[in-house]
Amino acid sequence: MNKLSRVVATATLALATAVPAAVVSSAAVATPTVTDVSERPAKKKAIKLVKAKPGTHYGLPGNKITAKIRAKGKVKFYLGGDLVKKAKIKKGKAKYTLPIELAPGTYKVKAKYKKSKASTKTVVWDSALNVSQAAFTISASTPSYDLPSPALTGTVRYKGKVATTGWVDMYLNGNVKGGSDSTDYCCMSSVGGDGTFSFSSSFLSDAQERGVGTWTYRAFYTETASFAEYIYSQPITVTVTP
């Protein structure tokens, strides 16, 4: 190959290798479309309210309301429009218990977390277990047949109405665990159609058998034998003297 031919061949090879390089360079400068994620609106955290019970009874501990939300921080609880608690979220839950002092009625509870809101209604029922006497003093030496009978009477109002059925059980220290099989169980009375009940002298005999001292009982009313829901009386004390 002469000198001229080598020059031509070299120029041709350089041109051939330069073309694809220009094409690649052109493709590299193309700018893709990118969406700025920071400009998207933040997704609102959903909040849900759950009641421990459909309602509670007047004079007994209030209903527990649980706010469920996947977030961190605090949930604000409102009762009747008033801010009543700022509860810290723990494991996706924040809790509020209504006060025991609430009068019978229907109450609206609202929970708020930033822009998320939820509300629920709960009832405080007009219920009461009233007893004729709350303090007794008897002697350990008094024969059971000389003890007063009936020793205790009372009335039951349940969910706004006079109770017409059900049972009233008496338990030492209000310990209902174990039911009638419990060593703290005393005795039982059925409720009449007029909402009344009565305990014979066996109630006081139970205290006598426990010995000298002061013993505290509570009476519990349940509408059904399942004992799934109940109301109870004030403490009833029986002092047994020597």
Structural commentary:
The N and C termini lie far apart (139 Å). The chain has 242 residues and is mostly beta strands. The chain contains 2 helices and 18 strands. Strands 10, 13, 14, 16, 17 and 18 form a 6-stranded mixed beta sheet that branches. The chain has a 5-stranded mixed beta sheet with strand order 2-8-7-4-5, with no helix packed on it. The protein is 14% helix and 42% strand. The chain folds into 2 domains: 48-125, Immunoglobulin-like; 128-241, Immunoglobulin-like (Sandwich).
Tell me briefly what this model is.
The chain is mainly β and 242 residues long. It has two helices and 18 strands.
Strand % is: 35-45%
Q: Unreliable runs, pLDDT <50, ≥5 residues? A: 1-29
Order of helices and strands: HEEEEEEEEEEEEEEEHEEE
CATH topology of the largest domain: Immunoglobulin-like
Total domain units: 2
Topology:
Layout: H1 3-28, E1 48-51, E2 55-57, E3 64-68, E4 74-79, E5 82-88, E6 93-97, E7 105-113, E8 116-125, E9 128-131, E10 135-139, E11 152-158, E12 161-162, E13 167-172, E14 185-190, E15 196-199, H2 202-210, E16 213-222, E17 230-232, E18 236-241
Parallel strand pairs: 2-8, 10-18
Antiparallel strand pairs: 1-3, 3-6, 4-5, 4-7, 7-8, 9-11, 11-12, 11-15, 13-14, 13-16, 16-17, 16-18
